[in-house]
Amino acid sequence: MGAGHGHKLHFHGHSAVHRAPAHLKILALLAFMIVVVATPRGWYPLFGAYVVAIAAVIAVSRVPPGYILKRSVVEVPFLFFAVLLPFVATGPQTEVLGVTVSQHGLTAGVALLVKGTLGVLASLTLAATTEPQDVLAGLERLRLPAQLVQIMSFMVRYLDVVTGEMQRMRIARESRGFSARNPRHWPVLARSAGALFIRSYERGERVHLAMLSRGYTGKMPR
C-alpha cells in the first residue's frame, strides 16, 4: 500500500520542472489559475502571454507537446458546451461566418474555451512532471486535511483497478455477443455501471477492514 508507482499522466524525466518541490508547483498552478480566471474576457493578448508561459514550462520540462495534447481530450465536453453557448444564450445578436449567434454567448463561449484550455494544459503539465505520491505529499505539506489527502490517495491507487474491472466487464459482454448500438441497449450498460459501483464499494469495505486489522487509526503510516 505504501509503495510508490507511476501513473499514465506522468512523464518520467529529470528536468528542473520535474525536480521542483511538489508543493511549490501546486501553489504555482493555483496562483496561475486564479490569475487566468480573474483576467477580463476581452484581454486576449494577455491570454496569449499565458499560453506562451505554459509552452515555456513544457519546453523546460522536456515533455513532448503531443504527450500533453493527447491527454487534453478530457476537455471535449467543455468545448462542446462553449461551442453551444452562442446559440442558446439571449441578448444582442451578431453574425459569425454568416450564422447569427448571441453576442454575449459568443463572448462567454470564447472566454470559457480559452480559460478552460489554459487550466487543462496547466493541470496536465503538473501531472506530467510530478508523481502522484509527490502531489499527495505536497498537499500534506500545504496543510490540506489529512482525511481528504487519504481519500485522494486511495482514488489514485485504485483508479486503475476499477478501470481494469470495467474493461473485463466490457470484454465479458462482447464475448456474449453484446454490442451497444442503439438506446435499447442502454439498460444493459446501466446495470453494468450499477454492478461496477457495487463491486467497487465492496472492495472499499474489504480494504478498510484489512487496514483496521493492521492497526489503522485514521492516519496513514509513513
Can you give me a brief rundown of this structure?
The protein is mainly alpha-helical. The protein has two domains: 16-137, no CATH class; 145-213. It has helices spanning 16-19, 22-38, 44-61, 65-71, 76-88, 103-129, 132-141, 146-175, 186-213, and strands at residues 93-96, 99-102.
* Count of spatially separate domains: 2
- Could you spell the SSE succession in H and E letters? HHHHHEEHHHH
Number of helices: 9
**What is the first-to-last residue Cα distance?**
11 Å
Q: Estimate percent helicity.
A: 55-70%
In total, the number of strands is 2
Radius of gyration: 22 Å
The structural class is: mainly alpha
Instruction: Assign an overall shape.
Output: globular
Tell me the strand percentage band.
under 5%
**Strand order, sheet with most strands:** 1-2
Mean pLDDT: 84
User: How does the major sheet shape up?
Assistant: 2 strands, antiparallel
